[in-house]
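User: Hey, quick favor. My workstation is busy. Could you predict this chain's structure for me?
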Amino acid sequence: MSVVTVNYIKNNIVSSDLELIKKIIPKKYNMCKDYKSDVAKNLTLLGNVLIYNNLTKNENDIRYSKLKKPYIENGDYFNISHSGEYVVFVKSKEKIGIDIETINKKHLDIIDYAFAEEEREYIENGKDELSVEERLTKFWTIKEALFKASGSDKYYEPKQIVVSNDRVNSFLDEKYYINTGKFENYFISVASKIEYDGIELIEDNINR
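Assistant: No problem, here it is.
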């Protein structure tokens, strides 16, 4: 069985961690040091730590698209997402995208704005073990993962990315395989050009 590896790291940075991060990714550290939000700064730094741990030990290899998406020229495809306490990272030889979101009843407020009628039918009346807010979070993460996997620099309204509960979904005339799963109070979805049979979560850390 072939599974896609999702590395995750928890946002519980202390001052000694920041000193280590400053040593391994000094350029990104200096870019983030003036962030007004410590949470935003830490999540950004941890995303780059995951790149450092799993792709390249040279932060100069990292480039950024028009939408500020990181990539490495002539390297593996990879993607990062964060929500709440966690940052997640995934890589592949072909296009791939990942999204993590907390499961929260407050998200039900966006159902009319973000979901087409056929999506709402599953979210509101799906015959599975998930709650309504879990199904909504699942579909939202699939939308995000699909968009991120596509690499598109164009903005799309959420309703323009219509997803289903099928194993395969399409976006911009391309087919992607979908893997989703619950992790604590989060939903994680991965959209990939390569077919995987599931997700394997591996905890990462700054000191690796």
